Amino acid sequence: MEYVSTRGSAPALDFEGVALAGLASDGGLYLPRQWPRFSEAQIRGLRGLAYWEFAVEVIRPFVGDSLTERELGAICHEVYGNAFAHEAVTPLVQLDPRNWLLELFHGPTLAFKDVALQLLGRLFETFLERRGERLTIVGATSGDTGSAAINAVAGLDRVEIFMLHPRGRVSEVQRRQMTTVRAPNVHNLAIEGSFDDAQAHVKRMFGDPAINGPLSLGAVNSINWARLMAQVVYYFYSAVQLGAPDRKVAYSVPTGNFGDVFAGYVAERMGLPIERLIVATNVNDILVRALARGDYSASGVTPTITPSMDIQVSSNFERLLFDCGGRDGAAMAAQMAGFAETKAMQLTNAQREGASALFRGFSADQDATARAMQWAHQAAGQVIDPHTAVGLSAARTALQEEAVDPSVPLVTLATAHPAKFREAVERAIGVRPNLPARVGDLFAREERFTELPGDYEASRDFVLTHALAGTRGSSAEA
Ligand SMILES: Cc1ncc(COP(=O)(O)O)c(C=O)c1O
Ligand SMILES: N[C@@H](CCOP(=O)(O)O)C(=O)O
Asked: What CATH code would you report for 88-110+225-429?
């Protein structure tokens, strides 16, 4: 399998190269040159497999020669046979005759990010060991990617991780899950600004020879193709349980960086009968506007009770625009250069038509989010987190507005455990969810992180000096 950049000028790479490179050298994002296709018979053949076996089947075409069959099987078995608290890994829960939840929060850090990052950690280990190399990971988080990535790579000999989060804009549980990890290869940086600022710094580091040269940088954000690949698996797993390929399925996906919902798009491209993908956002609704009117223009980020989705520049939207817009790398590079300058762009007709064939966008404000938490609790006895509630609110709106075929099951992705956002949950439904025992004594452990100003150079220079000096774990002053 060969991967190409959305901006056309970076070298094509194999899976191992893409997993280690993160962002392409031209600033673009890697995608498979062609989508692998599963026939209906192949999809039917997945029925009855355990999650880890599903993962092997769905992931295999993307991995190509980078892993042997035996290596891929061993990694998937180790990750999905052991690291999750539910035997089904991502169980389905029925809410009413039409609505389902796909629970993605049974991993070690209680959010959907674990599903991919537990795998990515093992892939890094395998590839770096094989090459005899080291990797400096730079990541940006609005809370969940950071904790899941740190959990996945803490203690690995060949990896050093620097995680930037926007100071004061993640939940306390999310922050503690990052800052109480004592492994010497983990560095937490709390920067001034929003998640978008942190993400912009990280992307800039990949293109900055002052740092990506002396250090070999790697990514754990969804700019890394391997993240999305692992997320495709649970679309297949859930759709097959609900009757695919003989029955269509629709999904509502709480969305920020457009990674999770893009994985649904990939599943559809591979032949899974997905009838509709609902892009559910909070009031930071650039994606809803883009899908409705072709207007992708970023304004400031409004803090909400769904902080992980307080995002206005959605990395993976570029992957969709590239794929729907005719895969023209030069045109995509020009379009993204315009956006970098003006923070606004208009989708082309091809991009709009391509996207609207499958996607619809709906946003939920704070009241609608609280109402969805209340409905899930009262109607189905389910305590859900506010991000999931944004997805559920959008799902219910989509049904009312007939944006989804009434005969297909509609699955909302439950992206985080309610205990990660227990203040917001308690305010909405009067129930304070308990933290599962697997997160341990989170509130008794000492926090360690470094506060930095919001300028790019402060973050870059911190990473550079600490990684080059090899002072593992020294970012622990605060
Ligand atoms: C709990 C939660 N839900 C939803 C999202 C949005 O997912 P994506 O960024 O893949 O669109 C995130 C963060 O990314 C998250 O942490
Ligand atoms: N909500 C995310 C933001 C980063 O998204 P990613 O999927 O690109 O890693 C977070 O929790 O950090």
From this structure: 3.40.50.1100
